[in-house]
Amino acid sequence: MDQVAASVMVDQPTHTITLTVNKITYELKVLPWVTLLDAIREYIELPGTKKGCDHGQCGACTVLVNGKRINSCLTLAVMKNGADITTIEGVAEDGVLHPLQQAFIDHDAFQCGYCTPGQICSAIGLINEGKATTREEIQELMSGNLCRCGAYPNIVAAVQQVNGKL
Amino acid sequence: MNNNTNYIGKPVNRVDGYAKVTGGAKYAADHHARGLCYGVVVSAGIAKGKILHIDTTEAMQLEGVFKIFTHENVSGLAWFNHSYKDMDAPPGKHFRYLQTDTITYSQQPVALVVAETFELARYAASLVKVTYKADAHVTNLTGNLDQARPPKGKKSGFKKPSSRGHFDKAFTAAPVTLDATYFHGAEHHNPMEMHATTVLYYKNGSITVYDKTQGILNTQSYVKSVFGLSGRKVKALSPFVGGAFGSGLRPQYQLFMAVLASLELKRSVKVMLTRQQMFSLGFRPITQQSLSIGSMEDGSLQAIKHEAVSGTSQFEDYVENIVNWSGMLYHCKNVKQSYQLVSLDTYTPLDMRAPGAVTGMFGLECAMDELAYKLNIDPLELRYINYSVEDGSMKKPYSSKALRDCYQQAAERFGWSQRNPEPRSMKNGHLLTGWGMATGMWDAMTVPARAKATFTADGRLTVGSATADIGTGTYTIMTQIAAETLGLPMDNVTFQLGDASLPYAYLEGGSATAASVGTAVQKACMQVRERLLDLAKDIPDSPFKGLSVAQVSFADGMMFMTETPANFIHLKDIMTLTDTGEINVTSTPLPNVFKQMKYAKNTHAAVFVEVQVDEELGAVKVTRVVSAVAAGRILNPKTARSQIMGGIVWGISGALHEESVLDHQFGRFINHNYAEYHIPVNLDINDIDVIFVEEQDDVVNPMGIKGVGEIGQVGVAAAIANAIYHATGKRIRELPITLDKLL
C-alpha cells in the first residue's frame, strides 16, 4: 500500500482514507475539503485526469468510480473512502489500448487532447450504462463533456464504433 | 522502386495520439516536484480605481501559507516598458502585474497567495481583504462611439484600411443600395485547459518553466527580461498545450505569478487560473461595423464602404484586420474603409481564432446576402458575378485562388440548386428550415522559423523547432514531412517542439505554422540528404560519385540513384561504412521575397449551412454544414479535416452561443464560467462535411502549404445568419443569435 501524506496544518482534522486507483490502493491523509480530482492529481500524482473548470461544468475531470462515470471535481475525496477508481492511466491494460482509446486515435476524436481523458472515461461509463443506442442518444449522453476544439463528430464516431461491441 | 515512406498528403493518425488517450501527455499543470507549493490569484472586484489597503493578516496566520504577494511587497523587477513587451504585444504601455495600486480593469490580479497546498492557498485567498476607492468606469462601446479614434502605433500583421476610387459618387449613382450595421460582443478563448504554469526551482537558482503558451520562446524571453535572468537560468518547456486559439499568444499572468513566487521563495510553484479568471485575459473585441454597398441591377458591385469600431483597453491599442476583406474579396472599383478604436476600462483584447476576419467577413457576407435579396439574385450567383482574380486593395493577382471550385463543389454537395429563395418556404409545423451560404477568407502567411535535424547511425532522425502544437497536429505533420523527405518510416522519426532551447520559431498562430516550420523541417532534411550523399561518395567504389543531390532519391530507409534505382544504399550503411556517428544540421529557410511580393496570398472557403428554427421556442439548430476549403497542399487530410471541423464548430458557437456579457454597472464580464458562457456541446453539433479543393501554389513555399487553422471558421456565422433569414424572414445583425432575438 502506497502512502501519500498531506501535511496541512489548519484547524481541521485530517481523515485517513484509502482509494484504490487503477488497481493500486493508496492510503491518504486528507482534509475534508480536498476534492477527488485534486486527490488524484496532486496527492496521488496521477495528472492524466484534467481540471477544466472545477465546478462540474465541463466534464474534463470525469473518472470511473466503481464503474460509474462521475465528475471528480464535484466529489470530495473523503466521500469515496474505499472506492475503486479508474482514471485514464488505468484504462489500457498491460500496455494494450482499450478499444475506445484506439477508436479515438483512429477517428481523430481529439485535437489538443485536454478533454480526452474525461471523454474516454465518460464514454466507457456511457457504454457500461447500456443506454445509448442511437447517434443522437450518444450525443445527448456525452454532452456533459465539453470539447473546445470541436471534435464532437469524431468523438461520436469513435463511441459508435465501440458501443455495443464490448 | 517500391516507396512505403510517402506520407505527405496521407491521413495518418496523430503521432501524439497514444500519449493523449492514455493520460501520458503532460500539460503545464501536470508536473510535480518535491516541496511543490501552490499559488492562487486574488482578482480585483472593481473595474477602475485605487487599492486603498490589502489586509493579509488573517490569511497569513494560517500555518502553511508562505507568502502573499501584492503591489506593496513586489519590487526589483524590470523598469522599462520594453521589458514587458512580448512577441504579440500591441503598441502601448504593457501591463505590470502586482506593481501598482491602480485598478485598470475588473478581475485585474491584485494578490498571489502561495501555500503548501492548493486548498490552503485557495482558502487563504478568500481571507485576503482588499478595500478600494472606485472611480467611474466606461465599458460600453456602443454608448461611446463618439470617442472612436484611429489606432496608435504599429503591430506586425496589421494592415491599415485602404480606400480606392470614389465611393460617395459611385454609391449615390448606384441603382441598388444597402446600408446595414452589425454587432458582436466580446468572446473569450476559453481553451479547455485553464492557463497554468509550473516552475521547478533548483538549488543553483535556475528554474524550469512549464507554461501554457503558443510560443515557448515568448515565455522564455518574457521571464528573462521581466525578472532579469540569463537564458542559462531559465529552461522553458511546453510540450503539450490544452488548446489556446490565441489565448497563448501572449504570456499570461499565471506565468509571471509562478516565476515571481518561485524565485522569491526558492521553491517549486504551480499556479493555475480558475475558469472565472480565464475571463480576465484578452478576448475578441466588442465590435460594431457598418456596410454600405451600391450595385447595378445586374448585381455588379459599384461601391463598398466598410467601417468598424472596436473596443480596446486604456493602456494598449489592440488592432486586427476587420474591414480589409471588403477591399479584397470582390471586384469593385470604389471602396472606402475605416477602422477605429474606443478605449474602455477592460483588459486589452487579444487575437482569437481568425482575428478580424471572423468579424469583418460576418458583416460583409451578411451584407452580400441582404443585397442578393434586394437584387432578386441568388446569393451564390451574386458571388460569381463579382468574383475577383486579383486582390483589388493591392492590385496583385492571387498566388492561387480556387474559390470558384469551392463554391461549385460545396454547392453541389449541399444541393443548393434545389433552393427556393423565398423566406419561410420550408415550413413543417412550427419548424422552419433555412439554407444560407457565405465565403471565407484568410491569409496564407509565412513567419520566420528554423529547424534542426539529427540523423544517427541507428537510422533514427530527430527534428526539432521551438514551435508549438496546440492541438493543430504540428507533431504529426512535421514527422510526415521529415520522414518522407529522408525516406524513413515515421516510427524512426521524432519531432520535438515546445522547448526554448530548440531553433527559433515564431508563435504558433495565424495558420502559419505548417507553412513556416514545415518549410524549415523540409530544408533541414534536404541538408541531411546532401550530407548523406557526400558521405556515400567517400565509400570505396561508390556508384554515387559525381552525382548531385538532385540525381538521388530517398525512400524506405535507402538512397537511390533516381535514373537507375537498382543502385541503392541503406542510409544506415552510409553511416556505418563511413564511421559516422551522427549528422547534425540546422536550417534557415529564406522565402523568395521578390517572387512573393508580386502576389496576394490567401486561403478561401465556401460554406453552406442548413438551420432548423423552432418558431415557438426561437431555438436554432444547425442541422447540416458543407464547407469546401482551398488552402493549398493538405499535408494530412485527417488532422486538417479536424481543424476545419473545429473552425466550423467555432463558427456555430459565435453565431448562436458564445458571448462574454458585460454588466456595465460593474464593468465586469458577468457570465464568467462554463455554465453561463455557452459553447456548443456534443448534441449541438450535427453533420459537418469538409471538402478540400485541389489547389496548387508554387509561390507561397516549396511545398505549396497555406495553412488551415483559421479558414474553417471564417464565414460560418454569416452563413448561419443568412440561413436563419431564409428560414424565418428575420434579419438578425447582432451575434450571438439567441432565441430572444427570434421571438
Automatic annotation (TrEMBL), chain A:
The keyword Oxidoreductase applies. The keyword Nucleotidyltransferase does not apply. Residues 15-91 form the 2Fe-2S ferredoxin-type domain. Pfam families: Fer2, Fer2_2. InterPro entries: 2Fe-2S-bd, 2Fe-2S-bd_dom_sf, 2Fe-2S_ferredoxin-like_sf, 2Fe-2S_ferredoxin-type, 2Fe2S_fd_BS, Aldehyde_Oxdr_Iron-Sulfur, Beta-grasp_dom_sf. Keywords: Iron, Metal-binding, Oxidoreductase. This is (2Fe-2S)-binding protein. It comes from Chitinophaga rhizophila.
From TrEMBL, chain B:
SMART domains: Ald_Xan_dh_C. Residues 145-165 are annotated as: Disordered. Gene3D superfamilies: Aldehyde oxidase/xanthine dehydrogenase, a/b hammerhead, Aldehyde oxidase/xanthine dehydrogenase, molybdopterin binding domain. Pfam families: Ald_Xan_dh_C, MoCoBD_1, MoCoBD_2. InterPro entries: Ald_Oxase/Xan_DH_a/b, Ald_Oxase/Xan_DH_a/b_sf, Ald_Oxase/xanthine_DH-like, AldOxase/xan_DH_MoCoBD1, AldOxase/xan_DH_MoCoBD2, AldOxase/xan_DH_Mopterin-bd_sf. Residues 22-136 form the Aldehyde oxidase/xanthine dehydrogenase a/b hammerhead domain. Residues 151-163 have a biased composition (Basic residues). It comes from the Bacteria. This is Xanthine dehydrogenase family protein molybdopterin-binding subunit. It comes from Chitinophaga rhizophila.
